[in-house]
Design a protein that fits this description.
- With 273 residues, the chain is of the alpha+beta class.
- It has helices at 12-19, 25-47, 55-64, 80-92, 128-131, 151-167, 173-198, 218-222, 241-249; strands spanning 52-53, 74-79, 98-101, 114-118, 121-124, 139-145, 203-205, 215-217, 225-230, 233-238, 268-271.
- The strands form four sheets. A five-stranded mixed beta sheet has the order 1-2-6-4-3. Strands 5-11 form a two-stranded antiparallel ribbon. Strands 7-8 form a two-stranded antiparallel ribbon.
- α6 runs antiparallel to α7 (173-198).
- The longest helix has 26 residues, at 173-198.
- It is globular, with a radius of gyration of 19 Å.
Amino acid sequence: MEEKVFNTGETASELKAKYNPEGSTLRKAQMRMLEMLVFIDKICRQEDIKYYIEGGTMLGAVRHKGFIPWDDDADIVMTEENFKRFSDYMKAHPHPQFVLQNHETDPGYFGFWTVLRDLKSEYIQDSATHNARKYRGCQVDIFCVTKPAHFGLQRFAGAFTFLNQKLFIGRVNVLANVVYQVQRCVIIPCCKALAKIIGKKDYYMYPWGSLFREQCPAEVVEGPTKDIEFEGVMLQGPGLVEQYLLHQFGKTYNELPPAESRLGHKTEVIFSE
């Protein structure tokens, strides 16, 4: 089979050699995250829980048949109902290596989305927010999407998360917890109530309080999923693949960005196994 050549003239093998060759730390992290994605997929198929890979993970599946070569995290989406079922399963069946991280399981984590963390690796990152957490391993972000969507209200709720990260988390965690609880108990419920009146009922958005503003049509989130190849295994993607990618990334989604824009999170990873 002829090797894919991208719009920049680069081939898939050239990209791999440049960014994530076999044996590199990044490739090891990607393979650990692949194990985590396969674990999630197995549970979801077994328990009939709907999810799909999203964001850069979904883009990588279509454009690279796996990870974007310079990508160092993975993302999936669930609705609130499906996430509750997944969370309940994880609580009833603890895994020896993977753990769900939220403020309940890790008081030093103040995000409003849940992360599946690997216990046998650790990102090394000079960040107060990162260092405040108990779990710091390779991750799969689990975004519990919600509707109705409202950009302005989501931005308002997320502003407190941004300020908390800049001012208190990892520095004065007592105040960080106060801000978090005010968000959780007052700001977000008020925003949710207002969104029911003025929000877009045909769109989903990322969890309240998150720092992400993208929205997704309800027909994509609520529609059926379908198998898509990712690093040689089959994971779940949105059924309306083309519509999803066009909405999230625009018409040029299948083109590589310029080299100066190919940015990961610039973290090192150590592995205990």
